[in-house]
Amino acid sequence: MAFVRSAQRSYDRAALEEWFENFDFSWESKFSSRELKEGRKLYTGGAVHTLELRKNYASANLKFADGTMRYCVIDFDRGSFTLRGSSGDDFTDSVCAVAGLYEVEELMADELPPLKFVAPPQKNIEVGDSEEKSALQSGRSEEAEEGAMKLSLIFRLKRDSLIFASYWKTDSGLKPAFGDSAIRADALNKKERETLVRLASFARKAGFSYDGKNHVLSDASSFPRAASNAITHWRKYFDVPKNADLELVLKGIRNLSLNISLSSSGLGNFSADFSASLDGEKIGFDELKILDGLDGRCAVLPKRGLVRLSQKDESLISSARQAFDLFKGKPPRYMLFTLFDDSAVKLSCELEDWKKSVSASAELPENLKFLRNYQREGVSKILSVFSSGCSMLLADEMGLGKTVQSLAAISTMHDLSKNFLIVCPASVIPVWRSEIEKFFPHLKSKTLDSDADFSTESGIIWLASYTQLRRNRQKLENTEFEMAVLDEAQYIKNPDSKISATCMSIKSRKRLALTGTPIENRLTDLWTIFRWLMPGLMGARAQFERRISEDVNFAERLRRQIAPFVLRRMKSDVAKELPPKFFVDLPCPMSEVQKTEYSRLLSDARSALKSSDRRERISVLSLLTRLRQASCDPALLPNLSGSDFSNSGKISALCSALSTVFSSGKKAVVFSQFVKFLDRIKAKVSIDFPEAEIFELTGSSLDRKSPVDAFQNAKKSAVIFVSLRAGGTGITLTGADYVFIADPWWNPAVEEQAIDRVHRIGKSGDVMVYRLVSEGTVEENVRRLQLKKKAVFEEVIGSLSKNKKSFEEAVSEILDDFKD
């Protein structure tokens, strides 16, 4: 404990004698523990600026951390005192008085003449036994000068503290030196009072506090030093008998070595035997519980002394206890990868074999030979993980056939007595139905609606949109599926949404999640998916988020943790026949009208972002949308809707690029978030290129198949205008050679999904991707935000990013980074 010595003292010898003769050394018992704690903090921090000591009062001036000054006056009358203070608050006045009284004690201790008493050698005694009593009850010591009683300090080690009790050794036996039954101060001679003052000073500087009966030290790491001081330094002035407790403390802090043995407990669970060794002696799990939550600090083990586990081992014990509690003492085997993936653990032979089986390959039936080699490997991996009692995330890049791989796995497990469930966006249900009819016509599928009844039919593959599943959630209560599939599993990325809650209520023996973008915004997206796949694998949400920010080895641990249950392949790795994609950012100048409107909106957005009014801060999000609209075309702004404008810079740039596309007889896809923007572009294209075929697909298109098929089968130059969200899933546009992203979207994963409608199996030519970005606008910063988010995603299976920047922070960055 560090002390700061700064008080200026003013006193005279007569005043010091008066206080010394009548001071009550048990004064701490008159204050609350909170008052003592805060007062001690002021005293040790050097807050007492001046101390004035007079016969009938002491005045202390204190300087607080905020620079304010407080004073207290302690009126003194033969051992009793009353308080007066300047704060007007009883608690603050008491805290100041505590700091002042500590300063008075130190002053008296500093002015004491050195004592000549040296304690004789002491034999060891056991605390609490009869030997202790006989050793202490020997009356006044003949070695003490001037007939002064000897003060004996008996140390005891408790689970959370080191304490000592103080006794006077009198002719009639032991007498407490402190407390209600203590010998009165006015009955003590000068040397005995000096002894008490010196003890109070020593105890304070060693970190002990007085609890009304004993002096207590609660900081376990300070126990060895305090015990050593008591034996080597305090013994010059007090009688300090050695005992078993002191001997334990004097051994210092010893490190425990953790031992873990795991064995199978049947039904896909496991049991764990935790123990530790100390000096070759085994310590059981019940004793280890004492160390839980200490964050690497030491603790007292009864009859063993001061011990410590490494933070790593302590964290392991805590996580294991939480896991065993979560699963009512029977955690599933997949929790081995979370709890014990990097620890020295002894696995039973059965668990060793099981762990190897997770990564093994499963044999596939002959009827799946039509699959591509990498698809066969994917199905084999799914079946292997399932056979181990685990679940699987198939994270192949878009366009590699996650749908057919899933259906192939279902076909190997198909049983007329069992039902299967596939949940996907509504727009993708036709794709699943088409793939079933094409590759697995023997499988029967139905679409979930309000009339569906899971209990009356079996052997069915139920196709459900996320919306329909939520509306029919009650039907899930009494139904268990053999296998459940979440397609586009990022739909449940918000753990608090109704869709996520509905999916969590699905009962199934096997679970498969499909998504090429398991992380769209942040790592909690991945946590939510695995919460559905294998509850508990990534721990509690708060724990997961804390590890992201605190654990320097988080990326490496998470990679190892999920690796057995994730399969991720890129087109460049497995589909060698696919042509490459080429990306070009196409800068677009703005028209004068665009610049004027943009500057006005930017000023409004910055003002709203700085406002303390919550409504103003929320409005910045809508203003940001307006800025993006102004960057595209001023006609998109509500206040200018219907006005007659010349074409925006983007429309002109896009039409210029399309002239090259059409002149070579190629096809193009134009994506935009804004349907009205697509309408504006389409109107211009129909005038400039009357010979080109034009198609469209937006969220309001009831028939998605017809425009897509017509575009794919067009024999001459064609363009299809697609809203970014409507066309991101469930369609194939491999007939196009050019993709234009008319306005960059926050999330690069959404754009990638759209682009991969074109760049997928079946595509024979190169794919050129143009992103139209208005110069000097927030769109440039949106692109930077895209790259950051993409980095998080790309490193899921590599070196996971710890970037957790919120959307509002990103908005602020986008606006602040832009230079007028």
UniProtKB/TrEMBL annotation:
Question: Could you confirm whether the keyword Signal appears in this record?
Answer: no
Q: Which SUPFAM superfamilies does UniProt cross-reference here?
A: P-loop containing nucleoside triphosphate hydrolases
Against Pfam families, the record matches this protein to: Helicase_C, SNF2-rel_dom
Helicase ATP-binding domain residues: 383-536
Domain Helicase C-terminal residues, every copy: 653-808
Q: Does the keyword Transcription apply?
A: no
Among the GO molecular function terms of this UniProt record, one is: helicase activity
What are the entry keywords? ATP-binding, Helicase, Hydrolase, Nucleotide-binding
Name listed for the protein in its UniProt record: DEAD/DEAH box helicase
Organism of origin: Intestinicryptomonas porci
Q: What is the lineage of its organism?
A: Bacteria, Pseudomonadati, Verrucomicrobiota, Opitutia, Opitutales
